[in-house]
Design brief:
Blueprint (H helix, E strand, L loop, with lengths): L1 E6 L7 H12 L3 E8 L7 E4 L2 E7 L2 H5 L9 H13 L7 E5 L4 H11 L3 E4 L4 H7 L6 H6 L2 H11 L5 E4 L2 H8 L8 E3 L21 E6 L8 H12 L5 E6 L5 H10 L6 E5 L3 H9 L3 E4 L13 H8 L4 E4 L2 H10 L2 E4 L4 H13 L7 H10 L3 H15 L1
Parallel strand pairs: 1-2, 1-5, 2-4, 5-6, 6-7, 7-8, 9-10, 9-12, 10-11, 12-13, 13-14
Antiparallel strand pairs: 3-4
Length: about 400
């Protein structure tokens, strides 16, 4: 099949999209990817083996108008002109929309060309916007209505022939929107073990090192971890927290660290590539997924979850539904109440001591090798398109 994918950001990078493209090409499909050109200044057209990438420069005005996509016409107009321009040159057999916003464009293409529509929901978009910083400003609330997004989601996904979600909890949520479960397929953000480099580095025996890698915003919950550090230091003096990543909330976290007088115990290491992340993970004792619990994070499948299990690092995670389920199934960690530094401290010592033998890192690794890996999830993606054929 020749599949038109639509992605509303610069490409690359996008680990999930890259893996899906590689999988489908390896299974004799052709991919045409449409994305915009905003920050990267990449070629307008690239062609590789069974992959064509069309990029269209987007103005700052059109880019910024995406926040009001359901109220103002500019963003949809940009994409409609772009996509139908591609379809004047290309004949496609299916259209694959990455995430909810541009599903309306996918529905228009489906209707005009009578081809299958796949909507690939990387996240719970309405819930994500509900907690996003930019939609909670006065202007953001005017331009982006959560009620309107939920109405849009319920209406537009009914036009999909297949819907992809990243986790079972998200599948259950979509099914409740009056969608036949047979149309919903789970393709998780699992890893290909061959693509995640393990290193021989070891933890420093003089410290108990906590490790976090990812974006830095208020919803990642690092402020709860930082507030727990002084509580832990009262009982053990050698705990430290290493944070890899960048984000707008870092300045607030740095001030919190200073106010709590724990600067010697918390390090902001900035952005690192995958190999450096792997090295720092290997040097850590405990890996963290401290997301604040919300409708969005209850349905999440972060890539780092599977990286941590594969690296055999015990995990401290907040009590988000999907995270707790996988952590308990893989016996790879302990959860804590997402907004409680006191409960984080309690879970920290419980994990450190493992008195109840709840942690079995070899068992978790076995599940990565047999169940929670991209070879399993990619087969679901391939089967989905085989059904169309």
């Amino acid at each position: 099949m020749k599949i038109l994918m639509i992605l509303d950001h610069d490409f690359p990078p996008d680990v999930r999209v890259e893996k899906e493209i590689e999988t489908l090409i390896n299974n004799k499909h052709e991919i045409i990817l449409a994305c915009y050109n905003y920050k990267k200044n990449l070629p307008e057209f690239e062609e590789k083996k069974n992959l064509k990438i069309y990029r269209k420069s987007i103005s700052k005005f059109s880019y910024k108008s995406s926040v009001a996509i359901l109220k103002l016409p500019f963003y949809f107009s940009f994409w409609k002109k772009f996509i139908f321009g591609i379809l004047e040159k290309e004949v496609v057999d299916a259209i694959h929309i990455h995430d909810l916003p541009l599903s309306k464009i996918g529905e228009k293409v489906k209707r005009k060309y009578n081809i299958p529509l796949v909507i690939d929901l990387h996240e719970n978009w309405p819930a994500s916007l509900e907690t996003a910083t930019h939609t909670n400003t006065i202007a953001g609330k005017i331009l982006s209505s959560n009620k309107q997004w939920r109405k849009y989601e319920k209406k537009i996904i009914k036009h999909a022939d297949k819907i992809i979600t990243v986790v079972d909890e998200m599948k259950d949520r979509i099914a409740k929107l009056e969608i036949n479960e047979n149309k919903i397929h789970v393709v998780s953000n699992t890893i290909s073990p061959k693509d995640f480099p393990l290193t021989i580095d070891k933890p420093d025996p003089n410290f108990t090192t906590l490790f976090y890698a990812g974006g830095i915003n208020i919803h990642r919950g690092l402020q709860i971890v930082i507030k727990a550090i002084p509580l832990i230091l009262k009982e053990i003096p050698n705990v430290r927290l290493n944070i890899i990543g960048t984000g707008s909330y870092q300045v607030h976290l740095e001030k919190l660290v200073s106010d709590l007088n724990i600067s010697n115990h918390v390090s902001f290491l900035g952005w690192k590539d995958l190999l450096e992340i792997s090295k720092h993970l290997a040097k850590s004792d405990i890996a963290l997924i401290p997301h604040l619990k919300s409708e969005q994070t209850d349905c999440s499948s972060p890539n780092k979850l599977y990286q941590y299990i594969y690296a055999k690092k015990p995990i401290l995670t907040s009590n988000c539904n999907s995270l707790v389920r996988i952590i308990e199934e893989t016996k790879s960690g302990i959860s804590y109440i997402h907004n409680s530094p006191e409960d984080f401290k309690k879970a920290f010592f419980e994990l450190l001591n493992n008195q109840n033998n709840t942690i079995d890192l070899d068992y978790g690794l076995n599940l990565i090798n047999t169940k929670y890996n991209w070879s399993v999830d990619s087969k679901r993606l391939v089967d989905l398109y085989s059904n169309f054929i």
